[in-house]
Write a structure and sequence with these properties.
By secondary structure, this protein is of the alpha+beta class. Helices cover 31% and strands 22% of the residues. The radius of gyration is 17 Å and the shape is globular. The strands form two sheets. The protein has an eight-stranded mixed beta sheet, sandwiched between helices. Strands 1-3-2 form a three-stranded antiparallel beta sheet, with helices on one face. The termini are far apart.
Length: 266
C-alpha cells in the first residue's frame, strides 16, 4: 500500500517536482519511497530539499537486463562485493567534480544512517589490484529497490558501474525484488534495457511491490567475474521460467531522456 505522507498523487502537480521543504531526515527520506517519491536537493547550496516523482518513471527489468558479449567480457576482469565499502561508494557518487552532482551533506548523512539500519545497500566493483573502480547504492523497501546513484573510474573502471548493476540484478533476483526503480531514463540505462512508464502506472506497480516481504540479501561476499556471470545466467533463467518482471508494457521503448548523475557511464 502506498504511503500518504506526501498527500494524494492525484493532487500532485503535473511535473516531476511535486514539492519542497526545509525539513529533511532519514525517516522522511525512507517514507518517501513508499509514496513513490524521492529526495533530491533543488539547489546544492540551498536549504530546500526537493521531493520528486517523475511524470515518466524509469525502470530496469531485473531479469531482463541487457548483458552484451562486451559486458560479459568486462565482468570477468572484476570482482564485486555488497555493503563492503558503502562510505567510499557514496563519496565517489557525491564527488562535487562530477557533472550534475547533487549529493550534498544532508543526503550523505541521511543515507549513511539508513545504511547502518539496513535499508540502504551498496554494490562495489574492484579491479585486479584491489582498487574500487565502480559502484552504486540505493534503497530496498519490500519488493522494491530504488537506485540512487552509480559511478565508475573513467581511467581504470571501464564498464565497472554496469558490472555493479549486474551484481545488483543477481542480488535482487535472489531477494525476490520485483521493481528496480532508476528514477529517470537515460541513454546509458536505456542501453541496458531500461524503459519508462507514466507516473500512475508506476504507483500502481509500486503499491503491489510494497506488499511483498523484504527478504535479506544473499550475503555471498566477494564474487569473481566468472562466478557472477554464472549466477546471472541462473537467475535470468529462473526469472524467465517463473514469469517474473511481468507484466511489462510491450510498447515501452528506451529513449534518451534527461541526464542524471545516476546514469553516467562510458
Amino acid at each position: 500500500m502506498l504511503g500518504v505522507t506526501f498527500g494524494r498523487p492525484e493532487d500532485w502537480p503535473g511535473q516531476d517536482l511535486i514539492g519542497y521543504s526545509e525539513e529533511f531526515s532519514p525517516g522522511l527520506a525512507l517514507e518517501a519511497y513508499s509514496c513513490g517519491v524521492f529526495p533530491m536537493p533543488i539547489d546544492h547550496d540551498g536549504e530546500e530539499m526537493g521531493w520528486w516523482s517523475p511524470m515518466q518513471r524509469g525502470l530496469l527489468p531485473i531479469h531482463g537486463l541487457h548483458v552484451t558479449r562486451s559486458l560479459r567480457k568486462s565482468a570477468r576482469r572484476y570482482t564485486t562485493t555488497v555493503d563492503r565499502a558503502f562510505d567510499d561508494v557514496l563519496a565517489a557518487c557525491g564527488d562535487p567534480a562530477r557533472d550534475g552532482g547533487w549529493i550534498d551533506a544532508r543526503i550523505q548523512d541521511a543515507y549513511t544512517t539508513l545504511h547502518a539500519k539496513g535499508w540502504v545497500h551498496s554494490v562495489e566493483t574492484w579491479d585486479a589490484d584491489g582498487r574500487l573502480v565502480g559502484g552504486l547504492y540505493g534503497v530496498h523497501v519490500g519488493g522494491v529497490f530504488a537506485g540512487e546513484s552509480m559511478f565508475h573510474d573513467p581511467d581504470r573502471g571501464r564498464d565497472a558501474s554496469k558490472v555493479a548493476l549486474l551484481r545488483l540484478a543477481v542480488e535482487l533476483a535472489w531477494a525476490g525484488v520485483r521493481l528496480l526503480d532508476v528514477q529517470w531514463l537515460t541513454e546509458h540505462l536505456g542501453s541496458l534495457g531500461a524503459y519508462e512508464i507514466p507516473r500512475a502506472e508506476y504507483l500502481a506497480r509500486l503499491s503491489l511491490a510494497l506488499e511483498l516481504p523484504q527478504l535479506p540479501w544473499s550475503g555471498s561476499g566477494t564474487m569473481h567475474g566468472a562466478d557472477l556471470l554464472q549466477a546471472w545466467d541462473v537467475a535470468r533463467a529462473q526469472g524467465t521460467l517463473a514469469g517474473r518482471d511481468t507484466p511489462f508494457r510491450t510498447d515501452a521503448r528506451p529513449r534518451a531522456a534527461r541526464p542524471s548523475e545516476g546514469g553516467a557511464d562510458a
